[in-house]
């Protein structure tokens, strides 16, 4: 690792070393002190299940069952750690890679694939899960998230006097998104309005093929300083540290103390999407370096060293992961193609004469093929 700049590992909050040894962080350890072996096993299980789902989705795209897939491989600790720090009173704005966070919000993972099969623009009820729909327009949702957080504040849902009722917003985006105007405007609005929002940047070191070094000369977290937003860099492959820092940031936001920028320093172990070939822009040596920092192996080593990962439990989770893969496959294959006329359904909230006329024309056009087939 270079000593300075956006890829430096200087100043990272860490509580598990890559070998799985528990280390203390003076500032943030207390936010993870209550985690017991059951909690850690639950996080390990979630990461294993999400990875199994993610791997299955990649295969389904290769088999032609999905138009595209966006893997979260390697980013499980950042997502599961922060996701476990969330409460039902919080609201999440994801970008498009946050399958791990979706899982912690109770979204049934195979449902996510409706979007990637082109069946729906979103496949879950955001209100039911406190988890907004995915946004593919880089950084655009940071503005929505900031506005939502300001509204939560004005609606009296923040700093209520009862810490159990308080809520906050967390908004996920990548290192590349921090170069977008929208994200910088969000930082300004969030800061001056003391909005209850945590900006959670997963710095996976690439914006497609563009390395973070082309986006910034300083660690991404330092961008918060100019906006007056307290910022923290955390080891995003360390699930305990990601949890602790998120707890700190969310509690602060819920208590009305304003926004926080968390930079989770991690690595995208897979391709940007299934349309991308990362061998064109990164080396085997880099991939090997990060394979040795695998977030799941790290927690696993820790649990094993504590004698807290029995074969029975681990085998049970692996069987669950296999079953999730099978269910994902069967669910996707059962969907078939949507009726094409469905595309007219959600253009406007209310019926619209032009859309209705176009739908009627389209249905006649489709029917003309059936007539032709009948005559043949
Ligand atoms: C406004 C906008 N510009 C460009 C794109 C094309 N695009 C898709 S993903 C991506 C890179 C995003 O990188 P980053 O923010 O680091 O997130 P990551 O995909 O690495 O999680 C770009 C430029 C887009 N989707 N939206």
Task: Please supply descriptive tags for the structure shown above.
globular; 8% strand; binds thiamine diphosphate; 5-stranded parallel sheet; alpha/beta
By CATH reckoning, the class of the largest domain would read: Alpha Beta
N- to C-terminal distance: 68 Å
**Ligands bound, unique:** thiamine diphosphate
Give the integer mean of the pLDDT values: 95
Unreliable parts: none
Number of domains: 2
Q: What can be said about the biggest beta sheet? A: 5 strands, parallel
Strand order in space, largest sheet: 1-2-3-7-6
SSE arrangement, N to C: HHEHHHHEHEEEEHEHHHH
Count of individual beta strands: 7
Radius of gyration from CA coordinates: 22 Å
Q: Please tell me the CATH architecture of the largest domain by its name.
A: 3-Layer(aba) Sandwich
Which percent bin holds the helix content?
A: 40-55%
Oligomer: single chain
Q: Helices and strands: which structural class? A: alpha/beta
Fraction in beta strands:
5-15%
CATH superfamily of the largest domain: Thiamin diphosphate (ThDP)-binding fold, Pyr/PP domains
At the fold tier of CATH, the topology name of the largest domain is: Rossmann fold
Principal-axes shape call:
globular
Give the number of helices. 12
Give a short synopsis of this structure.
By secondary structure, the protein is an alpha/beta fold. It has 12 helices and 7 strands.
Describe the overall structure.
The chain has 12 helices and 7 strands. The protein is globular and about 80 Å long. The chain has 2 domains: 29-334, 3-Layer(aba) Sandwich (Rossmann fold), CATH 3.40.50; 340-375. The chain has 376 residues and is of the alpha/beta class. It has helices spanning 37-62, 76-84, 99-104, 109-116, 126-129, 140-154, 181-192, 239-254, 284-291, 295-306, 311-335, 353-375; strands spanning 91-93, 169-174, 197-203, 206-207, 210-211, 231-235, 260-265. The termini are far apart. Helices cover 44% and strands 8% of the residues. A 5-stranded parallel sheet has the order 1-2-3-7-6, sandwiched between helices. A two-stranded antiparallel sheet has the order 4-5. α1 (37-62) runs antiparallel to α10 and α2 packs across α8 (239-254). Thiamine diphosphate is lined by residues 97, 136-138, 173-177, 204, 206-208, 272.
